[in-house]
Amino acid sequence: MNRRIALYVLIALTVLGFTDVKYGWSDMFAAPQQPFQVEGFDRAAIPPRDPAAIHTGSLQADLAPGEMVKIRNSIGNINITGADTNEVDLSYTIRVYANDQALAEEYLSGLKLDAVSSEGGLEIDLIKPGSRPKMISRVEIDIQGSLPNTAKVDLDNSMGDVHLADIAGPSHIKNQYGDASIKGVKGNLTVHAPFGGIEIEDVNGTLVSSGNYGSTDVKNIIGDVSIDSDFCAIHAKEITGSLSVKSSYSEATVENIDGNLTSETRFSTFTGRDIIGEVKTYSTYGRIHLEYISGDMVVDTKHSDVDVILGAFDHNLSLEANQGGIILKGELAGLKPVTSGETRTLEQVLGRGTHNVQITTVLGSISVK
After folding, report:
1. Would you list the DSSP string of 250-291?
2. What pLDDT does 127 receive?
3. Cα separation of 298 and 296, whole Å?
4. Do 61 and 115 touch, CB atoms closer than 8 A?
5. Judging by DSSP bridges, how do beta strands 152-159 and 162-177 pair with one another?
6. Residue 36's pLDDT is what?
7. Is residue 267 helix, strand or coil?
């Protein structure tokens, strides 16, 4: 065996030796001063890690109360905070990436971030000198500063992180690749971050949030909330309104909801705690855990386990598990489900039976305490 391994190693070293003679790969580990060639490959074509040209500037413009600031950006970070003012005051940095510094500086000289007055507000966009040369690998624009806290925001950013605070609504935020953090919105808010994390706090209005492949954290919303996220960790709490959650391949936890709760999940774990309103939850291939629900409950699942903690007994309980089990805990442990074929059921009034609790599952189990 050892001779065979030694033979394999010798053959491999021989092949590498011939390859190095032909291609000169060992020179790759040095720090060449000039672009090197490997079978027609030009190192100069590698996108640079550092910008070749940089320009900084600023924008100032007046904005009437309630008007909208529209921002369109391809790549870069946005960090804007509302202030007690009637002026938009922004600074920006433009970075041009290219292997040819002279070309980068020439192209940069024709770039300008401009603010144009439009009907209902202000539009901020990059003014370009024409089509971008192929040797320019990318252009980044970071924008930061302040605007009136009465301003609405319509932001579309393709790649980068977005941070907004103390703005008015209705506002619309789209960030394609990157995280979005929005705090302090007086009005309705829509956030769409398909490939990034979402953090939203202190919204006085309706919130619609969608985003995948990250985390969604929502807190202290005075209004109804809708969350639609896949492949995501979802946390929502302190909602003064109703909450709707739709998710797949995720883990969701919601708590302290003053209104109704509706959830539809697939291949996910869903936990709801301290819900004052009614609960309607649907699950396929997952797990549902509910604690201290003050209103009626309807739970409908397939290939999912359901775990419910009722709290004070004041329920009209209706349980049905088809090809599954019913587990009763605590003071309910003495109750006996009825078995008929592959179906187990339990009908029981607890206390005055004020709130209806209907739980059905197929190929899953039901646990109630």
Report:
1. -EEEEEEESS-EEEEEES-EEEEEEE-S-EEEEEEEEEEEEE
2. 86
3. 7
4. yes
5. parallel
6. 34
7. coil
According to DSSP, residue 276 is labeled: -
- pLDDT tens digits for 97-115? 988 889 889 989 999 889 9
More confident residue, 90 or 132: 90
**pLDDT at site 19:** 40
| CA of residue 150 relative to chain centroid, distance | 26
Whether the ω angle into residue 47 lies within 30 degrees of 0, i.e. cis, is no
User: How many Cα atoms occupy the beta-carbon half-sphere of 128 within 13 Å?
Assistant: 11
Q: Find the distance separating the first CA and the last CA of the chain, reported in whole Å.
A: 63
- To the nearest whole number, what is the mean pLDDT of the chain? 87
Residue the block writes with tokens 């969608």:
210
Give me the phi and psi of 12, to 5 degrees please: -65, -45
Tens of pLDDT along 171-189?
A: 999 999 999 999 999 999 9
The C-alpha atoms of residue 174 and residue 157 are separated, in whole angstroms, by 6
Q: Are strands 315-322 and 355-362 parallel, antiparallel or unpaired?
A: parallel
- The CB-side HSE value for 365 (13 A sphere, CA atoms) comes to 7
Total residue length of the chain? 369
